Amino acid sequence: MTTSAQAKPVWDGFILPDDLSVYIGKKTLVKLILDAIEGLNARTAAREAGATGNPDFQPAMMLTLLTYCYATGVYGSTDIELNMQHDRMICYLCAKNYLNLPVLREFRRYSRDRIKECLATVLRRVWELRFCDEDACPMAAASELGVSIGRWLDMRPTPDFTAEAEHRILRAVRADSMAMDC
């Protein structure tokens, strides 16, 4: 028996990679995230500051960190902690603070809607930069099919960025759940 979620995956037809920095670079990705957070007016999220219980992790910083990680394919809290040693951008975003795994999970739980909205905004913007701007680089796969990228994109519906953002957050929840089962 298959459910409707199993029959048609959320990412069906979505052509952005797990790691968006492949398309636009890490610095540009962080700039897009910061622009999205500014649009969400993260400075007024005082209730989220109390949710973490850690004065070092401010809501805007945590939102930036988790959005960046989910936009680059780093989902599990343990993976975020490990990548802090290997990914200079994650280290920079953490302001060299030690990551408390329960704090990351708690922030994700209480700020899920804000993370999803910010991530969806970033996904949409990367899509627009990569495929809709004048200077966009066409995908080789579309030209191999004998279809111009413009016509190919016109034939396909615009991806559901909110659903993709939710899918990435669910992957993070699953990764943390699996880590706790071990």
Helix/strand structural class = mainly alpha
For the sheet with most strands, the description reads:
none
Residue windows where pLDDT falls under 50 for at least 5 positions:
1-11, 46-52, 136-145
Extended strand count: 0
If you had to describe this structure to a student in words, what would you say it looks like?
- There is one protein chain.
- This protein has helices at residues 4-7, 21-24, 26-40, 46-52, 59-71, 77-83, 88-93, 101-110, 112-132, 140-144, 149-155, 161-181.
- By secondary structure, the protein is mostly helical.
- The protein has one domain (20-181).
- It is globular.
- The two termini are 29 Å apart.
- Residues 1-11, 46-52 and 136-145 have low confidence and may be disordered.
Topology:
Layout: H1 4-7, H2 21-24, H3 26-40, H4 46-52, H5 59-71, H6 77-83, H7 88-93, H8 101-110, H9 112-132, H10 140-144, H11 149-155, H12 161-181
Helix pairs in contact: 3-5, 3-9, 5-9, 9-12
Keywords:
182 residues; mainly alpha
Summarize the structure.
The chain has 182 residues and is mostly helical. The chain has helices at residues 4-7, 21-24, 26-40, 46-52, 59-71, 77-83, 88-93, 101-110, 112-132, 140-144, 149-155, 161-181. It has one domain (20-181).
